[in-house]
Amino acid sequence: MDSSIEVTIAELKNVGLASLTLSLMKQTNFDERTVSALKELKERRGVPEEHDSDGAQVVVHREGNTAPNTELQQNNGNSNPTMLLQSQQEQVPRMRQITEPYVPPEIPPIPSLRDVFLTCRRSQPFERHLTESDVRDDLCRLSIAKKHAQMFVLPMLNPEENLQNGIEVTVYDINGSTFNMILRIWASKFHVLTGGWNSFKKAHGLQELRDVVTMWTFRHSSTGKLCFAIIHRSSPLSQTSVRTRRSKRLKQNR
């Protein structure tokens, strides 16, 4: 290979480190040695520099915004790009948890039900962000959105089952524990799970706004009984909503 165009593994590694570092960091100020090294790498890749109205160098974010370098990061006077990259990489899992949409599995991750779900009749998963009424002890019920009831619950019913009278169901949690509940319709339009819902809610410490429940409706392959599998997760984006809701309550009570 012509030595003039040969690219060593070390150079590729340096280019990758610099590129990933710049793409992950929002605001970082480098010392002169690091700036010179990064400028050289940017020139090799043909990446233009940008400056603000005062002539200060800025970092371009992935979203297209720019921010001046106002924060100083030092390591005894020498900034280390590799250490900076490692620091940013530690934040990546949390960033992905917040930004990437959650896609529930088609089969609930409940080991004791694995064989049952391979042969049973079941619905696609659907989700509900818990509200205040879902966690109130005096109401003792989990609401199911009308569109979810029509798409994922009603098709699983047998002709003789009557929602007005209520249908006894078994609900499984992530551990395979069972809770006896009643599936019924209230006021001719609200589909709810009641009965043992309070026990399920307290067993898992569920809270309004913070928690999202994922649900599957299925017919047990051995008994034919109508069942639900319910698992929950905390939404990382819900804390602001919780604080806003609490703030509004405090203002109303004053």
TrEMBL record:
GO-annotated cellular components: nucleus
Domain TF-B3: 168-234
Entry keywords, A to Z: DNA-binding, Nucleus, Transcription, Transcription regulation
SMART domains: B3 (SM01019)
The keyword Transport is assigned to this record: no
Main location: nucleus
Protein location: Nucleus
GO molecular function, one term: DNA binding
InterPro entries per the UniProt record, alphabetical: At2g31720-like, B3_DNA-bd, DNA-bd_pseudobarrel_sf
SUPFAM superfamilies, alphabetized: DNA-binding pseudobarrel domain (SSF101936)
Protein name: TF-B3 domain-containing protein
